[in-house]
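This part of the workshop introduces the protein records we will be handling. Each record describes a single protein and holds just a pair of labelled lines. Instead of coordinates, the fold is spelled out as a row of discrete tokens. To make this concrete, we reproduce a full record directly below:
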Amino acid sequence: MFDKMSRRKYYYRHLLSLLHKHQDCRRAIQQIHSHFLVLNIEDISILALWNSILKHYSLSPFPQEAIFLFKYLKNQSDLMNFDSFTYSYLIKSCANMKRSHVGTALHCLSTKVGFDYHVHVQTALVNMYIDCGCLFQAKNVFDEMPEKNLVTWNVLITGFIKWGKIEFARSIFDVMPEKNVISWTGLIDGYTRMNRFQEALELFRKMVVHEGIRPTEVTLLAIFPAIWNIGCLEFCQMLHAYGQKSGFNTSDIRVVNCLVDAYAKSGSIASAWRVFEDIDDVRRNLVSWTSVISGFALHGMATEASDCYRRMENEGVKPNWITFLSVLNACSHGGLVDEGLEFYRRMVDDYGIAPDIKHYGTLIDMLGRAGRLEEAEKMAIGIPSAIGNVVVWRTLLGACSFHGNVEMGERVTRKIMDMEKEYGGDYVLLSNIFSAAGRFVDSERVRSVMEERNASKLPGVTLV
């Protein structure tokens, strides 16, 4: 009898190790699940095995299977005592399914069997309600919890941030009894996503300087967008030094790529280039190349962007649509029209990348700047209707105004009016084209039509 029990325990341990070994393989888990179903009824009480399968299903693309398995187990044995892990995995499956009504049923069931005081189960419920968009219920569960840990607080904060409730998240953050780097990073990321960049930088400074909390690489990735949107070169240099000292610059290529982008957008393309050149050839990826090419484009350095692209190709890195958009932008601002058209041809013919509206807009802007208006108009006409956009025609109208092409300006305006008649800027541009050509009567006529249609004009803004 003892040998039989020992063999059974060994067998269960073996099955459990198989589950852990193949936890990311759906087919393997299903095979082990099928094997469990042929066990004797008393074997169902081996809860750790079933919990491992529930965990896999709850985190998989098919979380509903965790609910189906739970119902099966309950029907098979009313005596089975499910534990906190069971309910946590089931609640997680509801979060992944975005099924709050199923989650509410599990909430009631878990309370009925005594888990209303269990911090892990209650934290899972807070997370589930937030993922389902039920913020009021999430806050209620949180408020009624007799015990909360740091994870609970962070789940609530990041959840409110996820739904754009940054003020609520900040109020929760301010009363937290204890904060860790995850708490700070979550709120910094929230301010950045809400385009409140100055507040993000102030919070980051408070975290590092006043609280003495060391940022992680995730914190750096969260703060970089605030830095380059404000153009704060001092912050770039500080994070560059910190990344070097902490080892993030050598361990996480994402940090270095963001640093290249931040330097370029903060006005120091020389620093961006130095950081890029310091990246090992093995670690340098497509994002690295695209970031520095985009930086050159931003600074009007078309030749450098073009040369950098060719060097990238020579090193065997395959460009994507963003890379081509960056190099086309550089050619547009640098006046390299023929070179830009060649890049466009290679994008379509050699790499099979279908242009989107941004590529077309950049090409028309490039041709328009160079005065090649007929080519620009022909390209605009050839844009598939599925991706056609009035902005492209407005770009061409701006070029007509700059070069004083009255006839094309009239044609382009008619095309724009077929799409949208409410924007006053279109009328103003055509009126200016007529005025520049000495056709003042036509200019006044366009202004009158604009007034009749009550077309809106953007008010002027003075920046001090």
Summary: Residues 365-455 form a domain with the Serine Threonine Protein Phosphatase 5, Tetratricopeptide repeat fold (CATH 1.25.40).
